[in-house]
Design a protein that fits this description.
Elements lengths: L1 E6 L8 E5 L4 E4 L25 E3 L5 H4 L2 H6 L5 E5 H31 L11 H4 L6 E4 L4 E3 L4 E5 L4 E5 L1
Keywords: Hydrolase
Protein name: Ribonuclease
InterPro entries: MBL, Metallo-B-lactamas, RibonucZ/Hydroxyglut_hydro
Length: 165
């Protein structure tokens, strides 16, 4: 097993852990970078999103879920494991995040147009968030879920337990 810290290393935002086993590739969280680190949101992922099997979401703070729509834009089509409460709030949070990004890019583009600069696009749009709920597997707290014969997970309050067999 190999774990790569793709965010929240030397910073508190952008939580994202890429885990590779002999048979699976998955993430624990896929968060947005905030503040001075926000430029990192537009950097390519250090893995191929289309190769991911699934994502485990620990909770619905934007620094833990904020780049999930970008995963889908880049080819991810796997499952997302989250508690029911996290899944419900995640849907609201991602739409709100997209709305803010759309407004910010619109505002930036007004300024850029006056300077003759190329327009910028939001990281993702509200439309990009609409299909995500169909990929979410809502999990109960404290129940072990067998992802496959080698990976099990259990979402607890607070936090997550998972293991390889």
């Amino acid at each position: 097993m190999k774990i790569t810290f793709c965010g929240a290393a030397k910073t508190v935002t952008g939580s994202c852990y890429y885990i590779e086993t002999d048979k699976r590739k998955f993430l624990v969280d896929c968060g947005m970078f905030q503040g001075k680190m926000s430029g990192l949101n537009f950097e390519p992922f250090p893995f191929e999103p289309a190769d991911l099997d699934f994502v485990i979401v620990t909770h619905s703070h934007i620094d833990h879920i904020g780049r999930i729509p970008l995963l889908f834009k880049k080819g991810f089509n796997g499952s997302i494991f989250a508690t029911s409460a996290t899944a419900d709030l995640m849907e609201i949070m991602l739409k709100d995040s997209a709305h803010i990004q759309e407004l910010e890019s619109k505002w930036q583009n007004k300024k850029r147009q006056r300077k003759g600069l190329v327009p910028v696009k939001p990281l993702y749009t509200i439309e990009d968030t609409l299909r995500i709920p169909e990929y979410v597997i809502k999990c109960s707290y404290g129940k072990w879920i067998e992802v496959d014969e080698n990976i099990v997970l259990c979402l607890k309050m607070p936090g997550i337990c998972w293991g390889l067999q």
